[in-house]
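Z., the sequence and structure:
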Amino acid sequence: MPVRSIDSIRHMREQAERSPKDSVLCYNSPVLLMIKMFFVRLRETKGVLDLSLNHFFARKILLVRHGLTDWNYTHRFQGRTDVPLNEKGLLQAEKAARRIEGWPVDAVYSSPLTRARQTADVVAARIQKPTTVLDDLIEVHFGSWEGLHFREKMEKKDESLMKWLADPFFNAPPGAEEWDSIRQRAERAVNSVLNTEHKHIVIVSHGGMIRALLVVFLGLDPHTVWKIRSSNCSLTGIEIREHETSLAFVNDDLHLKENREGKYLPLW
């Protein structure tokens, strides 16, 4: 459809309203209704109408949790401990990269920890983009719990673990990072990513930090956001428009469950 000037659109509207029977535009036709909405929008913006792509299309953020590590497999608290991906984790990263490959990615951001960097680098190499490290995307520090086995604390019916499970951000282990620090890092990371011209962005981070990012992006309750699952190498999609931010999908790991032909469902 050719782009018309405001004058030509106004002329079409006036013609239809004067002589609806003779006009190619019925008074209540969808086209005329679109023209009416055009002028409503023009009045709302005091004559300055945003016809840029930003008005019509969302910015899209893809949150990717890193692939599997040996500590994930044995259910140990990792936090800031720099544990690399294991063989399965590297394979997961490759599958995620193949899933993302058909999406028009503008930038790839990563936590500085090795497991996230390895995942991000596999994705970035697949789409021929560099990996940009943001220190604020680093995982939440678990203090004295780092390296401990989750199952052992469960078997002991550790009261502090029960409180942490009920509300992780506000019942931090001894020496762990507090919620105010986590939130501030998440806000800085979001600002760093959004203060660019990039429209399609991949962020590779960690289970705890991804939930903090969801709080900042979507305004979710930090007391309940841990009810949202974030599996290894899963994808979570966020769409940002002029007046709203929405969750498009969450914890999508269908690329790790490919069919016999090795095909995946499309991403967005």
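The chain has two domains: 6-51, 55-257. The first helix runs from residue 6 to 18.

Let me know what you think.
H.
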